[in-house]
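User: Structure with zinc ion, tokens only please.
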Amino acid sequence: MKRNVAIIGGGQTFHAARRHDVDQAEMVNEAVRAALNDARMTMDEIDLVILGNMEFFEGTHMTDCWLVHGTGAYGKQGLKITTGGTVGATAVVTAAHHVASGLFPRVLCIGFEKQEEGDTGAILSGVAHPLWGRSLAGAAVGYFAMMGSSYMAAWGATEEHSAMVAVKARQNARKNKYAHLKLDIGIEDVLNSRMLSWPIRMLDMCPASNGACAMILADEKTAKARCKKPVWIRAMDTAHNEQFELDWRDVKTTRPIFSRTCAKRIYRKLGVQKPSEYFDVFEVYEPATWSELVWYEDLGLCAPGEGFRLIEKGVTEIGGAIPVNPSGGVLSTNCIGASAMLRVWEAALQIRGDAGEHQVPKDVRRALTTAYGGTNWTVMTALSRTLDD
Amino acid sequence: MEEKHTTDTFEVDQRLTAHGTYWAGKMGTRFYTALRDQQKILGTPCTTCNKVFWPPRSICTFCFSELKDVVEIGPRGTVETFTLVTYTEPIHPRTAPFLYAVIKLDGADTGMAHFLDEVEIDKVHIGMRVQPVFAKDRKGNILDIQYFKPI
Ligand SMILES: [Zn+2]
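Assistant:
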């Protein structure tokens, strides 16, 4: 990038299925204050506020207008982002673009969702194509179920493999004080959980969480003057897919699909040859267990068809060679508008060495984060500890 | 030709039903509890800005301070601006004609829109003094104040 952009602070709420103690503005405000405190900044120093959530997932519209006391955006420039599961990552990317433009040195970006307050499933069916999909649509589980059945048929993986992903996520979440599902479970618990849509069981899916995340991005001058541990945004990429494109389910396809296209482009920007060695930690967007296995392959952490071998060998555990989602990921916490931002923020915490109990036990200099959602968008953000990394 | 085009087109019904709830939070809960149980209207003072907000809030919009106190405001107030609605749409809460007014309660620095009833339309004016009429069966909703009327 022509102008460097750094993450100079961030924060999140505790994530939970119920937040009856706060309204939406109060919940968002918790994350905003945490981010400002972390960056040692006041709201007066913020030039632009970007707010992300999914329209009507909490039964409300135009939250950028009426949550303004919670976001601190009163009288400031800003905009609202809604791009599906990618919302939080798109908000970060948009913030980074604004800083990199040279026009806004200090930008606050926020992602939130208070899922218990709306009918996410019903609104998700509104995402389906009005002519071809909506009369058949029923929320998100079926999408990942198709992915799982296709993956097993293509590569010979079993339901035990997806269960291993479920266990890893919830055991990692137990080390993350902010995570929603901190479950001390084993493979049997996953396999015995209620079947939702074969092969997806209850514990193969993410929860519906309430929560918010906020981050402050700044230009190089501000970052160096104000922040002891800036985390640099080194590259970003977004790829779109057509919603009514079914080929993505065919995991054997040689055609470039959205996540692989995105990975290829971001690796080219950074000169990455071997991603599993280049990056020290990954935070990927996995609303279901199978999607994490597909991410391993689409990110090139292994050859196609070998993703389930990585989880089998424990390679992607916190202490493994390629740690993936030490935070517990989306499988443990899914406040949709915040989920993709949490990937970036958790990766930044790993680089700062501030992840606490779920800090990976190795030197973390570079991290890659992913997001997907909506009509199959992918957003990737690569972070580093120094500008030389 | 024109007619043939019309008969060959399709439309697909897109009815969606999505139920929602909204938790009133720290300040909203205090407001509605006082309104429902005591017929009291609460505002939030910001000592930094020297303003009292209605509706109440936990964060000052202007200075970003956290607000924790409440004060009783009103119940009397003043019409800041108003309009007479003379058309009817399914989305409207009432059938026309009806009056909307922004009312600043005594002791508050901000106004809020509500209905204005029991008034001769020709006599409504900015600066008119009004008082609330509380609902008998109050449920924790802004319509626990049914409407305002002239004093
Ligand atoms: Zn104030």
